[in-house]
Amino acid sequence: MKNLRKLLAVLMAGLMILFVAGCGGGSGSSGSGSGSGAPKAASNGKKVGVAMPTQSSQRWIQDGANMKQKLEALGYTVDLQYAEDDVQAQVSQLENMITNGANCLVVASIDSSALVNVLAQAKQQNIPVVAYDRLLMDTDSVSYYATFDNKGVGVEIGKYIETKLGLKEGKGPYNIEFFAGSPDDNNAHFLNDGVFEVLKPYLDKGQLVVPSGQTDFNTICTLRWSQETAQKRMEDIISGYYTDGKKLDVVVSPFDGISYGIAAALQGAGYQVGQNWPLITGQDAELMATKNILSGKQSMTIFKDTRLLADKCVTMVQAVLEGKQPEINDTKSYNNHKVVVPSYLCTPVPVDKDNVQKVLIDSGYYTKADVGL
Question: Which of 25, 111, 317, 321 has the most CB atoms less than 10 A away?
Answer without folding.
Answer: 317
